[in-house]
Amino acid sequence: MPLHRLPRLLLPALFAPAILAAQAAPPPADLIVVNARIYTVDEGRPRAEALAVRGGRVQFAGSRRGAETLRGPQTRIVDAGGATIIPGIADAHVHLLGLGQALRTVDLTGTRSLDDVIGRIAARARELPAGTWVTGRGWDQNDWPDTRLPVHDALSRAVPNHPVYVVRVDGHAAFTNAAALRIAGLTRETQSPSGGRIELTAAGEPTGVLVDAAMGLVSRRIPPASRDQVRDATLAAIREVNRLGLTSVHDAGVDAATIDVYEELARAGTYSLRNYVMIRQDDSTLARYFRRGPQTALYDGRLWIRAIKISADGALGSRGAALLDPYSDEASHSGLILTSGERIRDVAARALRAGFQLNVHAIGDRGNRVVLDAFADALRQVPSADHRFRVEHAQILHHDDIPRFAELDVIPSMQSTHQTSDMYWAPNRIGFSRSLGAYAWRSLLNTGVIIANGTDFPVEPVNPMFTFHSAITRQDGNGWPTGGWFADQRMTRDEALKSMTIWPAYAAFQEASLGSLSIGKWADFVVLDRDIMTVSPDQVRGTVVLSTWIAGRPVFERR
């Protein structure tokens, strides 16, 4: 029957399916990426070959056919040429401003002797007016022929007219010269502060090395960076991390002035990074941010300000990590407690009441126990089902404390490249038996917890491919030792990828919007020149980042 003869009541029913189909058609994508090997880290669709993005968020991840149904006249099509795509990489423990400052000061990483350190410092001093401070970072006496902590005499002779303050690679010790000691008024009569150590010669004179809290005796005399200098250093650091594939960081121990600069940059739209900020734990900073309350996904998801950072002890390399028993290579010393358990407990309870997360640096087995005890006390005071307290580093653990992370719902935030940096000398510090509980990723994972992985840059190199390689091999870049250092503690590749994507997102309360290429989440992803999930382990460290994308827009593209 011709349409004009159909009863009028039947016409709407006849055309309803077509009308509904037109109304239900999804809007076109802004971006479609095809011809890719995509690891989504989404349990519902772990692998894909195409990705569609709309409004900065993932619209589709799956087949090329499915993605191309979302193509519109204005859709940008990117052919990945068979490259590998993973979610945006997160580094769960960094010092962003520290990296920016390190890019502009004397770089002492990789120095192989005290003479090498002095040579680099002297070269910088020749470029500066007399009396100007020379600062730097990255020396590690464990890499030198003489692994004892240095003495300033040769440095003071080489650089007599510039005060020098250069920080050890771990950030927990500094090396200074005579000019800096004079400015600080530091003599043989000066007492080591609580939580710190002034290293002395056999004759009782300061060596120029200051550990943990003692560093402030000199550092407070250095003129502070201007706001413009902080701004420039921050932008330099962001450019560097974007270049290496990072889209998200957890920034440990940031002061209020630096956070103000971060907010200024984010408001201006020049902050191409997602930063989960951990504020410093001094009372004035806590009071300021507790009054303001937890802040999430500010400035189009660029800043989160809802976590606190405390340091419970020092570092292993400078013998500041707090141990239950004395150091194997210094029987009279068992490390330093920088923050008491009572203080940690009190801040933890206040954080719970204010809706903030507490993340505590602990490296030694005593430091870790102090933190876990403090967390347990705080959770009895203020019961919470989803606090997500974290231990930052968790490097040396007594076997009795490993299951306590799961029992207390505490997240270990660990850095796999710390293991491959420390494995050469750590057994000398702590002996073989304690090494069994060192960097114990598998032991922790087997209890059911997750691990948020990172680098602690600028302590370790920013490159997340080094992180991935260390996690799956427990070997250095030369493949040493054969089979890996305590190889039974390795992660699988799937675990390593999660430890750099979805697990850090969970550790920062961000799993609903970050960490996987799931529909509705931010379209943050990285394009790699090889498949890190299948290539031989010795090829992983050489992986090149071809481009880095945040919210479906490139923030770095290799030319």
Notes on the structure:
- It contains 21 helices and 25 strands.
- Among the domains are: 1-82 and 516-559, Urease, subunit C, domain 1; 96-219, Diaminopimelate Epimerase, Chain A, domain 1 (Roll).
- It has an 8-stranded parallel sheet with strand order 8-15-16-18-19-20-21-22. A 6-stranded mixed sheet has the order 3-2-7-23-24-25, covered by helices on one side.
- The termini are far apart.
- Helices cover 33% and strands 22% of the residues.
- It has 559 residues and is α/β, with parallel strands linked by helices.
- Strand 4 (50-54) and strand 5 form a beta hairpin.
Query: What number is the mean pLDDT?
Result: 95
**Basic shape:** globular
Helix fraction, binned, reads 25-40%
Q: What can be said about the biggest beta sheet?
A: 8 strands, parallel
What's the CATH H-level superfamily name of the domain at 1-82 and 516-559? Urease, subunit C, domain 1
Strand order of the largest sheet: 8-15-16-18-19-20-21-22
Instruction: Please provide the count of β strands.
Output: 25
The SS-based structural class is: alpha/beta
Beta-strand fraction estimate: 15-25%
Low-confidence stretches: none
Work out the radius of gyration: 26 Å
Q: Which fold name is given in CATH as the topology of the domain at 1-82 and 516-559?
A: Urease, subunit C, domain 1
